[in-house]
Design a protein that fits this description.
The structure is a single chain. This protein is α/β, with parallel strands linked by helices and about 425 residues long. The protein is built from 13 helices and 14 strands. It has an eight-stranded mixed sheet with strand order 1-2-4-3-5-6-7-8, sandwiched between helices. α8 links the parallel β7 and β8. The chain starts with 12 loop residues before the first strand and ends with a strand.
Length: about 425
């Protein structure tokens, strides 16, 4: 585990915002010109939960900002208990103070409920959502938790209240390291004896999941997260949201598996960050223009003159027939781009992949109703790269390659990796 998980500091830039109710503490890493990812932690903890993953998110080109919810971490408390809608409106005040326009929102537990409500308040500013465990309680469980879930503690001269806090953390998370649990004790104490103030806001709130339909959403958490038990309820509420469970991760998967966490988050964010001409964040680098006459049996010529090839229909092509076809051209472009993006991924991970060969097979087929479609199979071979390292690089590459962005969610792409060792 990263040593950052054991305390409240870290390598991220840290700062404060002055807002009407007081100061708000935040952490920020990455390129301020990249897609903005606003991370909202669970209560009664703080943005320190995300510190070990901040550099990893930045390595993907994201502008990652983790905030301390008012009243938690090193942020000032509100003058009175807030509802979830009030926390959500405060989140937008924080975003405005940070100079953020459109954002991707990642929320965990309490933070997920706040992120969902914030999306309903200003949907036009939310490019995508990541729920790192969202509590969708039924009425009976909500009432039961409101009655006894977060009883608080009474400071005692002999320090026995410290044991009360420690035992609660150990009850919730029996497998986490003592260093992480120790940091959480400090976070509980920082909130004060009534650490359940945000919990009560959650228990009094019903998330309108139906109103979030159409917002690109990822369900992501550690396989041992305490809310993993709610997967059936949550996936039913968000039927089009992929579910990613990171093995070996608890509620603190961002600490325990920061690279896997960042890879999954960045792939989702990149897939929903525009990238088309005319959209925010798109910066043209190069334009290729090709003119085709005669369709599949014609000729393709680039305006630069570097491409001038005859085209032929696959079914009509003999062994002596000259020409290529759109599927071969697409396969060549995807393979070349993916290979170069993998080199970028290797540099970001500070590893050497060795010689890499990318083989792309593009299949043309028919869909029900007579329409046509294509499917892609990518084969990535790097015999000098350990298999687990290559698999990690390929996951990162899919979040970087513009071809992968272009086809994600539109066509099937199957990836095979062949490493060494």
């Amino acid at each position: 585990m990263s040593t950052h998980a054991t305390h409240l500091r870290g390598t991220s830039h840290r700062g404060y915002l002055e807002l009407p109710w007081g100061q708000v503490h935040f952490r920020r890493s990455g390129d301020t010109g990249g897609p903005a990812l606003l991370l909202v932690h669970q209560s009664p903890l703080s943005s320190a939960t995300y510190e070990p993953a901040m550099a990893e998110l930045a390595a993907h080109g994201l502008d990652a900002v983790a905030v301390d919810i008012p009243g938690f971490g090193m942020s000032d408390a509100a003058p009175e208990p807030w509802s979830i809608p009030r926390y959500a409106s405060a989140l937008w005040q924080i975003a405005d103070a940070l100079g953020l326009g459109e954002v991707h929102l990642l929320g965990q537990h309490t933070g997920a409920v706040i992120a969902a409500e914030a999306t309903l308040q200003q949907r036009d500013r939310v490019r995508s959502l990541v729920f790192q465990g969202i509590p969708l309680y039924g009425d009976e469980e909500r009432a039961e938790k409101a009655a006894r879930y977060a009883p608080g503690y009474t400071p005692a001269p002999d320090g026995t209240h410290l044991r009360v806090v420690w035992d609660r953390i150990r009850w919730l998370y029996p497998t986490i390291p003592a260093e992480s649990a120790s940091r959480q004790v400090a976070e509980y104490l920082g909130v004060g004896p009534d650490y359940g103030v945000a919990y009560r806001a959650v228990f009094a709130h019903t998330t309108d999941t139906a109103a979030l339909a159409g917002v690109p959403t990822l369900l992501l958490h550690g396989a041992d997260d305490v809310l993993d038990r709610m997967n059936d309820v949550v996936t039913a509420a968000f039927p089009h949201a992929p579910l990613v469970r990171i093995d070996g991760g608890t509620d603190f998967v961002a600490e325990e598996k920061p690279e896997k966490f960042a890879d999954a988050v960045a792939a989702h964010v990149r897939a929903h960050s525009g990238g088309r001409a005319g959209e925010p964040g798109f910066s043209p680098l190069y334009t290729a223009t090709v003119e085709v006459t005669g369709g599949r049996a014609g000729r393709a010529r680039s305006t630069s003159g570097s491409l001038d090839v005859p085209l032929s229909r696959p079914a009509e092509r003999g062994k002596d027939t000259a020409g290529t076809d759109p599927e071969e051209l697409f396969a060549a472009g995807y393979a070349a781009c993916f290979g170069s993006a993998l080199e970028v991924a290797a540099r970001r991970r500070r590893v050497t992949a060795g010689p890499v060969t990318v083989t792309t097979a593009v299949t043309l087929g028919t869909r029900p109703g007579g329409a046509y479609g294509i499917a892609v199979r990518l084969g990535v071979s790097a015999p000098e790269c350990p298999q687990d390292t290559l698999e990690e690089l390929v996951r990162l590459t899919h979040s970087l390659c513009p071809y992968s962005h272009a086809v994600r969610g539109n066509i099937e792409v199957v990836t095979e990796t062949h490493g060494g060792g």
